[in-house]
Write a structure and sequence with these properties.
Layout (H helix, E strand, L loop, with lengths): L5 H9 L3 E6 L5 E6 L1 E4 L2 E7 L2 H8 L2 E8 L8 E11 L4 H13 L3 H4 L8 E14 L2
Antiparallel strand pairs: 1-2, 1-5, 3-4, 4-7, 5-6, 6-7
Length: 135
C-alpha cells in the first residue's frame, strides 16, 4: 500500500468530489464523479449498485483523481491514486463509515437517498500508486 504525504492526505480529506475510473469486462472505460471519504490511508466511496459497482466486481483496479482547477495553470493541483477496490461488508464497519459519510456530506440522507446496506455499496480503495502535482 502506498503512503500519502501529509499534504496529499489533507488535499484528499478536504476534497468534496473526485473522479473514479473503472473498466468493464470488455475493457470499456467508465469515469464518474464521486464523493470521497478518506480514513486511515484508504479512500471510501458510497454508491448505488450501478455500472461502477458492477465493473469493480469484475475488475477491482481503479484510478481516482482529486483536483483543484484554477484558471492560473501554474497553480493547478491534483492527486491521482491507482489501486484496487473491494466492498465493505454489512456490519459495524459499514455503519461507522455510513455515519462518517453523513458527517462529511450532510445532504446524503435527504438529497442522496441515504446509504442503506440493501441497495448501497461502500467501496474501499487501497492505494497502490500515487502521482501528484502541486500538492
Amino acid at each position: 500500500m502506498a503512503e500519502l504525504t501529509d499534504a496529499q492526505r489533507d488535499f484528499i480529506d478536504l476534497a468534496r468530489v473526485a473522479r473514479l475510473a473503472t473498466v468493464d469486462s470488455d475493457g470499456a472505460p467508465h469515469n464518474v464523479p464521486v464523493c470521497p471519504l478518506l480514513d486511515d490511508g484508504l479512500v471510501y466511496v458510497a454508491s448505488g449498485i450501478n455500472r461502477k459497482v458492477r465493473n469493480l466486481r469484475g475488475e477491482p483496479r481503479v484510478a481516482l483523481v482529486f483536483d483543484d482547477y484554477v484558471e492560473l495553470w501554474d497553480a493547478l493541483k491534483f492527486v491521482l491514486v491507482e489501486g484496487s477496490a473491494s466492498e465493505v461488508e454489512a456490519g459495524p464497519r459499514y455503519a461507522e463509515l455510513k455515519e462518517r459519510f453523513y458527517t462529511k456530506y450532510p445532504q446524503y440522507p435527504t438529497m442522496g437517498g441515504g446509504i442503506d446496506q440493501a441497495d448501497t455499496a461502500i467501496l474501499e480503495i487501497t492505494i497502490d500508486r500515487i502521482v501528484s502535482d502541486g500538492v
